[in-house]
């Protein structure tokens, strides 16, 4: 993991000399962040070793015997793992970013990380040789309020700088339509090209998700078949997308949505906010529409868990509190129309 990667991510190390109040500052701000619906992880450096269990307890005996141990209780869980040569701080941070909105690190003042420096009493400047300091916490004053402002801004910056990719789902059986939907034409355009052109207005790169013929009018595009073990249905396409680009924000549309519009896409992207891992719109009747939706990097872990349960459709993602389901404005509702049969397609052509 290079510094350029860390600069783009919601990661902050809170550093300072012993006694500068690092732990107290973190302890005071974490509840404020959690109240805002954010998942927060803390990585703590301890040069003296880790003491997490009493000698003689079953879990301590298992660990002493040589096993890695997972402790699971109704309201909490914990892994106790041995440090291995291939383990690194960078890998730990990368893993935590997949399931958290913010990773805070206590210490590591000499590690190349974005930092907040906690001044000790009487200290007025950052010590020479400490790099990557983005802000400082004075000894006096409301440190929690200052740290809250800094961390929230860090999350906003990370979200704003995140690459937005577009994914177009193809490859369904199309039994009711009778032919692959992506090559069907509406006027002089293929359905796939209609969706691709709208996505191009807001995303940096477009990928076709699924196997199947792509029409000539879309031009050259990356195309990903379902990855091994990714399951079936739309979830397979979503999981494949996140395996290909795990730190991207994915705006995904199905190839059978001829009413998709730039205005609808702009509204969808505007629904992003800190602590939101996916935006799955619903219509006025409460039906979810996950095949024209937005998925932040943390949604990849949720999608993986649904695939592991053998599910095919992404609607169950709405069970997580981190997933927003805003109601589609009536003026934009046509964008979420799917055409599944020749009759539905003809009706759309007639309306158009």
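Q: What amino acid sequence fits the structure above?
A:
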């Amino acid at each position: 993991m290079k510094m350029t990667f860390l600069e783009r991510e919601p990661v902050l190390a809170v550093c300072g000399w012993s006694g500068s109040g690092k732990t107290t500052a973190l302890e005071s701000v974490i509840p404020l962040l959690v109240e805002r619906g954010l998942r927060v992880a803390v990585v703590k450096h301890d040069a003296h070793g880790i003491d997490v269990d009493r000698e003689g307890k079953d879990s301590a005996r298992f660990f002493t015997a040589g096993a890695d141990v997972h402790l699971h209780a109704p309201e909490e869980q914990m892994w106790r793992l041995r440090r291995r040569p291939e383990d690194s701080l960078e890998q730990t941070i990368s893993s935590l970013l997949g399931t958290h909105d913010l990773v805070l690190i206590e210490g590591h003042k000499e590690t190349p990380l974005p930092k907040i420096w906690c001044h000790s009493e009487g200290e007025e400047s950052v010590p020479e040789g400490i790099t990557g300091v983005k802000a400082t916490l004075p000894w006096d004053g409301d440190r929690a309020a200052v740290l809250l402002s800094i961390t929230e801004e860090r999350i906003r910056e990370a979200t704003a700088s995140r690459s937005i990719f577009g994914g177009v789902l193809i490859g369904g059986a199309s039994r009711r339509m009778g032919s692959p939907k992506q090559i069907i034409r509406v006027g002089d355009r293929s359905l796939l090209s209609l969706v691709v052109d709208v996505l191009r207005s807001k995303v940096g790169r477009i990928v076709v998700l699924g196997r199947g013929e792509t029409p000539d009018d879309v031009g050259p595009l990356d195309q990903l078949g379902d990855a091994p073990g990714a399951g079936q249905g739309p979830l397979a396409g979503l999981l494949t997308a996140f395996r290909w680009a795990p730190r991207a924000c994915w705006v995904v549309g199905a190839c059978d949505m001829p009413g998709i519009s730039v205005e609808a896409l702009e509204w969808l992207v505007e629904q992003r906010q800190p602590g939101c891992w996916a935006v799955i719109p619903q219509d006025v009747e409460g039906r979810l529409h996950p095949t024209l939706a937005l998925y932040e990097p943390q949604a990849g872990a949720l999608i993986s868990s649904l695939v592991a349960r053998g599910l095919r459709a992404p609607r169950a993602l709405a069970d997580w509190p981190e997933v927003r389901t805003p109601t589609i404005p009536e003026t934009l509702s046509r964008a979420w129309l799917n055409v599944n049969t020749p009759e539905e397609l003809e009706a759309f052509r007639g309306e158009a």
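Q: And what stands out in the fold?
A: The longest strand covers residues 164-169.
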